[in-house]
Design goal:
Blueprint (H helix, E strand, L loop, with lengths): L1 H13 L6 E6 L8 E6 L6 E4 L5 E2 L4 E6 L3 H6 L5 E7 L6 E7 L1 H10 L4 H4 L5
Antiparallel strand pairs: 1-2, 1-7, 2-3, 3-4, 5-6, 6-7
Length: about 120
């Protein structure tokens, strides 16, 4: 099954589908509803781009925790996904966002939004 998913991912990339990491996100973290979109990285920084609406820039974004979805969250997003809690910005201008990705995309998301050193030892995948 894993090899099948990797093969499909390579096919999508070869077909030049839009770049980025497919995900569901909740902004601000813990409030609102889950919305589908993509996490994009580029020279202007990392940002979450919802399917509809304005992009959310993630300046100085860092992952603060990784967890499995609760039963209630599993009804809105894929229950096999992993939720990455992220903080971004500096000081009072910062915010929070939760990004749900499939386990195969988790490593790529953590490369775009690296773990903070203080939380890297306490989080589990």
């Amino acid at each position: 099954m894993i090899e099948f998913l990797r093969h499909k991912r390579r096919e999508r990339l070869a077909a030049l589908t839009p770049d980025g990491i497919l995900c569901m996100a909740r902004h601000p973290a813990g409030a609102g509803r889950w919305r589908s979109g993509r996490v994009l990285t580029g020279p202007d920084g990392t940002r979450w781009v919802p399917r509809r609406g304005e992009p959310v820039p993630l300046p100085a974004g860092r992952a603060t925790g990784i967890r499995a979805p609760s039963v209630k969250e599993g009804m809105a997003i894929n229950p096999g996904s992993r939720i990455v809690a992220c903080a971004y910005g500096a000081g009072g201008s910062g915010g929070s966002i939760e990004i749900a990705v499939m386990p195969l995309d988790l490593r790529e998301l953590l490369a775009a939004v690296p773990r903070s050193e203080a939380d890297a030892d306490t989080s589990t995948a």
